[in-house]
Amino acid sequence: MEKQSKSGLTPFHIAVPVRDIAEAREFYGGILGCSEGRSAEHWVDFNLFGHQFVCHLNPNLGKDGQLESHYNGVDGHGVPVPHYGVILEMPVWEALAARLKEKGVRFVIEPYIRFAGQVGEQATLFLMDPTGNALEFKAFADIDGQLFAR
């Protein structure tokens, strides 16, 4: 997956805990379609739309191996916190949402348009990886003009 924004942003690096490296490979590689970079026994790099997303094995995640999220109300939905994500061009977001639906992914928040008709109108969707890391993918009709609009 390549960098999507035309704004020239520098790629980010983020590392998250996972309960199982093979399970992370299936989710991030198989479901999200991220290509794999370097890896070792206890971690693996993924190219998440041009950003370095690293899954580190954490065997101390508790009895069920699930992270717990707090939920904040936004636009009538419970948004999981913390969450990580990427802002995409609208056609790329639409293709991702369609692919995730085809794969039968269970969404925390189904793909929809948030803040319709307002400043900051955006397409968004939320899902969890198998460990419970919350991910958001969003898109704006005009990223450069709308991303930080007030």
UniProtKB/TrEMBL annotation:
Residue ranges constituting the VOC domain according to the UniProt record: 10-140
CDD domains: VOC_like
Pfam families the record matches: Glyoxalase
Residues passing through the membrane, by range: none
Domain of life: Bacteria
InterPro entries recorded: Glyas_Bleomycin-R_OHBP_Dase (IPR029068), Glyas_Fos-R_dOase_dom (IPR004360), VOC_core (IPR037523)
PANTHER family (UniProt xref): PTHR39434, VOC DOMAIN-CONTAINING PROTEIN
Protein name: VOC domain-containing protein
